[in-house]
Every structure is written in structure tokens, then in C-alpha cells.
Amino acid sequence: MAVAGLAGLAAAPSRVLASPAVGERKFLFILAYGGWDPCYAFTPLFDNEYAVMPENSVTAEENGVTFIDAESRPAVRGFFEAYGDRTCLINGMEVRSITHERCTRILLTGSANAASDDFASILAAHSANDLILPHVVLSGPAFTDKYSSQVVRVGRADQFPTLIQDAAFDLSHDSLPHINGISEPLIDAFVRERAGTYAAAAAAGRETLIGAEYVDALDKMQRASDLSDTIEFGTGEIETQVSNALGLLELGVSRCVTVQHDGIWDLTWDTHSANELQDFHFDLLFELLNNTMAELDSRTSASGAPLSEEVTVVVMSEMGRDPRLNELGGKHHWTYTSLMLVGAGIQGGQVIGEFDEYVTGKPLDFTTGEPSDDGVAMLPGHLGATLLTLGDVDPDEYLPDFDVLGAALDGT
Fold this sequence. Notes:
Layout: H1 7-10, E1 26-32, E2 58-62, E3 65-69, H2 74-83, E4 87-94, H3 100-109, H4 119-125, E5 135-137, E6 151-153, H5 159-164, H6 183-201, H7 206-227, H8 238-251, E7 256-261, H9 277-298, E8 311-316, E9 320-321, E10 333-334, E11 336-343, E12 350-352, H10 380-390
Parallel strand pairs: 1-7, 1-8, 4-12, 5-6, 5-7
Antiparallel strand pairs: 2-3, 4-11, 8-11, 9-10
Helix pairs in contact: 2-9, 6-7, 8-9
């Protein structure tokens, strides 16, 4: 254990805990960064004069989910054949911006306000369990204000695994000849004992809080370090990231994990030119999703239940793409997008939402999921309220202006 690296953890504020629950809902967030084109998988707009659909594509349906099928994207069909009954596809959500950073913040928090927390961090903060790593960001963004202490960012240069494996600290300097493999455990034990003594003797008030939190931080740091024998915390390939994300959820040390999918050759999904790259992006993404669901089915949660019964997979992109081709053969940004909710707690086998003739989202009746002239235009805040409800968190505390999309939930 690297004693010198504990200052940040020791200073973390107290966590907010909900009432105890057995087998609480967990979440895997997969962000297709750059803005995907729903016309390649989600929205059959073949009769729309504004929409340019990919060549050699057709409308298909499996397990109640209508999607776009093509021989060049076999993984898309394979996914809906195998897991369409667990999937709720949502069309027509508006992010109300066309810049990546702003759209991403709105998508993940429901707000453009910098003083806001993303849905994953809120869910992590309300875990019923004393988690070592509440919300792990293996890759991609996270936005926090109140709940920064809930987020563990691996870092683009793998800073977190470097920290917990002691590699961040060179203790072999000539001025410290006594620091070696024998003495390091003794130093760790000494620090633990001193911290425990301080906490036990601390006066009431802030001193007690600081002492207890420091002891807790030492313990969690050691437990995180022990995990490195099982979990590969480095960023690595997206397939490795997702497998390790499922490992964290399986072991019960995290409630939420976020990964970012950058498409083929890590080009991101931002296809202002060569929109046919979306074809490759979607096939790779759905191949990953097929493997993810199979792995969820094969794993067992710490509660003893199949992991697939506890994990909700949220697959989304921060924006869509203009239905028309531009002068470069690509598509510019579009404020409307689609997303998928898959797995635990989701009413699968359905598509919620439609695009109108101008490829903007139709208002919805949130109870039935059907388009309605008297309905509500779906925004990321509605997604957040729905996810918080899935996680037994009162959405009114964080998103009071947004209704829950009840049609997407199976009621369990």
C-alpha cells in the first residue's frame, strides 16, 4: 500500500447512504462519443424526404424492436435477435445543443449547469453498500459537484492503477536507504495504528469525522490495491474495459461504471465527412453489446443472483446527426438522438418515441410511451429521472422538473 498516496482519499467527505437493500440495481454506462447517426440502427426513415438512409439497409423487427438491418452490420441484427426482449429503444430525445462538451454534460446530468452531478455519481452516492469505488470511470467523461468523492477516474495515462500499485512513488532514493520491501509493511502498519489511535481519541465534532474518514480511506485504499490482482484498472481496449467493468459490478465494489466507445480506429463517431464510417462504428458497438450481455448472463453478483438481474446497461450518444448529407458526404450535428436501456428493471421488447417529418422528436405520453399531441418532449432530464427511479433514488430531489418515463420500466 502506498501510504504517501492517501491524502486525497483521506480528505474525501462523508458518503450519502440510502436504506440497506439486497441486490441493489447497478449500472453500466456506454457512451458512443462524437454523435451517432440513428439512421444506421434505430430509426427507419426511408419515406422521409429529409433523411438520407444508408444504402442496402432495410427495416426489420425482432422481439418487438424495430431497427435498421444490413448485411454489413450483422451484429445489430444479432443483438436484437438475442436481446431485443430485454431492450427498450428510445427515439427522439433532444439534447438542445450541438457542441460536444455541452451536449455531453446535458446528456449525463440533465443540465448545462456546471454545479450538477451526473446520474451515475448520484446513483453511486446513494448505494446501500459501503463501496470502495462507487462510480468508476474507466474511460469517458464524468461531471460532479456535490458527489466528486464518489468518482474514481482511471485517467487517460492510467493514473489510478499506478497509484494503488505503488508505482507512483519512488522510495529508492539515496536519502531513504531504509525504505525497502521489509520496512514498507512496517511503515504501513505504523500509519494504520497511529490513524486508529487518533480516531479513537479524537474529540467530538470535526476531529472525530476527520479521524474516522482517514482510517476508512486507509482501509479502502488497501482493498482497492488488493483488487488489482483481479481487475485490470488500466484503460486498454474497450472490450477489456467492459469486461473489467462487469468485474467491478460482480464483486460488489462499484455501483456504476462508465466507458466510452470511440468507434473504429478510435476515430470517434463525429462523421462530418465519410458518414459510411457509422456502418463500422455500429457493427463494432453491437458486437461489444452482444458480448457484454453474454458475459452478464454468465456472471453471478455478490448477492448470489445472476449479474444480469441486477445490471442496467445504458447505451447512448451525446447527440445525433443531421438527417441530410453535407457537401463532404458526411452529416453535421443534430440535437435529437436515440438511446437504449437494456437489462434489469427495463420493460424490453419495445420502441418508445418517434421522429416527425422534420426528424424532430414527437411529444410522448410517458405512461404509455406513445406519441401524443398533449405529451411531453423527451429530454435528458427525463432519462435521469427514470434512471434514478430504477436505482431507488427519489428523482424529485435532483430533477424536480422532469417526469419519469414509466413506460420504459418493468415495475420490479
